[in-house]
Queue: 2 jobs
Job 1
Amino acid sequence: MTNVSLRGLSKSFGHFSVVKAFDLEIAAGEFVVFVGPSGCGKTTTLRMIAGLELPTGGEIFIGSRDVTDLDPRDRRIAMVFQSYALYPHMTIRENLGFALKLAGVPKEEIARKVEAVADTLGLQQYLQAKPRTLSGGQRQRVALGRAIIREPDVFLFDEPLSNLDAKLRSVMRNEIIRLHKSLKSTMIYVTHDQVEAMTMGDRIVVMHGGVAQQIGTPLEVYDEPANLFVATFIGSPSMNILEGEVENGKFQCQGISIDSPVPVSGKAFLGIRPEHLRIVPHDTPGAIRGTLGVVEHLGAETIIELLTDGPVITARIPRADGLSGGAELYVAANHIHLFDKDGNRIETP
Ligand code: ADP
Ligand code: MG
C-alpha cells in the first residue's frame, strides 16, 4: 500500500492549459475517482501520474519517491484502459504473463502467478483462448489481470468500463470494488460517469476545466456541493437551479417564494434536487405552483416536469399513477441548497 501525492500538478499543451495546479493527497489503499465531463483533464492527469505525459509544473510523489521525472517503467504503477490493449496473437495465458516475461521472471513463477490471477478473475477456462474469442467483459477481465499480476503500488484506470453495456458495466463495477477490498491497493479511477464515481470511490474529485472543483466522499459531494457545477453534475436527474434574489429572508424567483435558510441578501441561486420535491396541497408554505409537463414512469418512481411561470422544475417522486399533462399542481422541497451570485455554496445550518 502506497500513498500518492500530487503537488501543484499542471499541464499545458502550447498555450492551452488543461490541468491547473492540482493538489491531492491520496492515502495508501484509497480508491479515488476523478470524475468530470469529457475534456476536463482527467486522462491527462492520469497519464502524468503514469509517466506517459510530462507535467509542465508541479510534482508527483508515489510513497516517499519523487517520480516526476521517472520513466513509466520505474514507477511501479499499472494502467487499465477503455480499449483492452490485449495482444491479439497471444493466448490469454501469454497475455497475462507477458509483462513478467519481459521483466525476466522465471517461467515457473510466471505460471504460478498466471494461475492465481486467472483464479481471482474467473479466467481459468479461457487461458488457452485468443482474445478475439472472448466477450468484452472477459477481455476487460484479462486487462485487469495483466495489471494485477505486476503487483503494482498503484493501479490507474482510465474509463475501463465505457465499452461495456450497462448491465455488464455494473457487474464489472462490483468486481473492481471487490478487487480493491481484497488487494487493498491504492487505486485511481477516471470516469465521466457520475454513477460510477458515486458507487466506487472512497473519495471523488469532481473536475471541470482542468480544475478540481471539489474533493470529498461521494455523500459529502452530494450533500454539500461546492458550487453550481458540482451541484448539477452530481445527481440524476440534475439539480434544479433557480436564479433569483434573497430579500427579507425570502428567496424570490419569478413568482416562486421560498424561505431562505440563511440571512443573506441580493442575487443568489437556489438549488433543489428533484428527489427532494413532493406534490403538496396548494396552501403548503414554499409550495411552487405549475402545470404538469412530461411524465416519465420509472416503475418505483415517477419523474415529472412542472411548468411554472418561470423555470421548468423536475421532480422525482414516488410512483404516481394517473397524473395527466396540463393538470395544475404544487410541489415543495424538503431540502434546498443556496449559492451566491458567483455560484459558490453558501453554508446552510
Ligand atoms: P478527459 O480525459 O477529461 O476527457 P483529456 O485529459 O483527455 O480530458 O483532455 C483535456 C484537454 O486537453 C482536452 O481539451 C484535449 O483536447 C486536450 N489535449 C489532450 N491531449 C492533448 C495533446 N496531446 N495535445 C493537445 N491537446 C491535448
Ligand atoms: Mg479521457
Note: Residues 240-346 form a domain with the OB fold (Dihydrolipoamide Acetyltransferase, E2P) fold (CATH 2.40.50.140).
Job 2
Amino acid sequence: ASGGHELPSFHHPNTKGGPTCAVIALKCPHIAVTIVDLNQARIDAWNSPDFALPIYEPGLEEVVRQARGRNLFFSTDVDKAIQEADLIFVSVNTPTKKSGVGAGFGADLHYVESATRRIAAVATSSKIVVEKSTVPCRTAESMRTILEANCKPGCRFDILSNPEFLAEGTAIGDLFKPDRVLIGSLQTQEGKDACAGLAGVYANWVPKDRILTVGLWSSELSKLAANAMLAQRISSINALSAICEATGANIDEVAHAVGFDSRVGPKFLRASVGFGGSCFQKDILNLVYLSESLHLPQVAEYWRQVVEMNEYQKSRFSKSVVDTLFNTITGKHIAVLGFAFKADTGDTRESPAITIVRDFLAERAYVTIYDPKVDEAQIWQDLSEACPSLSLEQIKKQVTIAHSALDACKQKEAIVIATEWKEFREIDWQTVYDDMTKPAFVFDGRLLVDADKLRQIGFKVKVIGRGE
Ligand code: UGA
C-alpha cells in the first residue's frame, strides 16, 4: 500500500464499500484507489458528470468531487483492477441465507467466495486481501484456503480482516474520525507485516492509538459482537418502553437517568419502533447460528431474544395503532411518515416501516407513505416482498406514495411517524390538523414530536415509551 498502487474494492449493492474507499482515496492522495463493481449502471452512477451517486449519504458527494479522477476511479474492469492492486478490499454483500443449510440465520458467503476465486484466478503478483464484509468467524480462513489452493507460483496472498464500523447517514463523519480501526491478521511474521501495511494506510488520518491490531478470528468476532451489543441496547430500552407505557413512566427520563452512569453511557439508548438496517438482525442471527453450530444453545438463545424483542416492539406498535383507533383500521386512512430504516439514508433494508405498513395492509387500511429519500420503486418492491399474498395491483389499491409530509397527512385519521427525519420536526402541525379527519391521531414511533404542543392543537398523541 505504498505510493502509486491501487486499491480495488469489490462493491456489490452495499452502502459501505463505496464511501469507505472514497474516503481512503481522499485521505491518501498518493494511493490510487479503484472501486470495481460488475454492475455497469452502478459504476456509471459513480462516474456520472452531475454526481448522481448510487447511494445517498450526507457528505459523500463532496468526497467524490475532490478525489474522483485524481486518485479515485470507478470501473467494471474487475480483472485489471485485481492485477494492478497491491491491496484488495473485498466488500461484497453477505446477506442472510434464504435457503439450504442455515436458511434464515447463516450468512450467504456466495459473493465472498466468488470474489476470492476471481482474485486467485486473475492475480499475477502477490496481494494483501482484506476482508471488509461482515462475515461469520473463520471466513478469512476459507478465503485463505481458496487463495492458496489456486495461486500461481511466486504469488503470495496475505489475508486480513478489517471490519467496518461506520453507520449509515453518518458514514463520512464516522470514516473521518473513527472510534477505532480494527485489523485482524494471522500472528505470523507475514501476517503482521501485512497488518502493518494496512495500518499504514489508515495512519494517514487516524491516530495510531485508535488502530487496533488483533488476531484474525478476534477481529471477525468483534464485528458481530459490536453490532450484537449495540442492538441489545436498543432491545433493552425498547423492552423498558413497554413497561413505561404500562405504568406512566417516561422512557426518555429513564434512558437519561440510566445513561448518566458513565459505565452505561448516554448514546444509543433511544427507544423506537424497532431497529432496522441491513446489519443488526443479520449479524445477530449469524451469531445465533454460530453459537448453535458450536453447541452453545444457551448462548444462541440469549442473542436470539434481542431479535425477538425487536419483532415484538414492531408488532406492539402496530397493535397499539389498531387498539387506539377503536379496535379497527379497516377502511381507515393512515399516513406513514418515513420509510427508511433511519434518518439521513435512502436505505430501507429491514426498515420497521415495512413491517408496520404490512400490518396495516393486513387490517385492510389505506396507507399513504412519504419519505424524502426513498425511491418509489423501492417502496413497491419492499411491500411486494413483505406481502407475498398480495399482488402489486392489490397493494397499489391500498397504498399511495405522497411527495410531501403535508400531502401525505391530508384527510387522514392517523399519522404514524416511522423514521426520525429532521423535516418531520418542522411540520406545520396546525395546518395538518385542520386538514385531518377528527379525532386526529399521531403515533410517534421515534420520540420526535412535542406531544404537549400537539395536544394543545387538538391531536390525540401516542408516543413510544410514554404512559399518558
Ligand atoms: C450499524 C452500526 O451502528 C455500525 O457501527 C455498523 O458498522 C453497521 O451497523 C454495520 O454493521 O454495517 P447502521 O445499521 O447503519 O449501523 O445504523 P444505526 O445507527 O446503528 O441504526 C440501526 C437501527 O437502530 C436504526 O433503525 C435506528 O433507527 C435504530 N436505533 C439506533 C434505535 O432505534 N435507537 C437508537 O438509540 C439507535
Note: Confidence is low (pLDDT under 50) at residues 1-6.
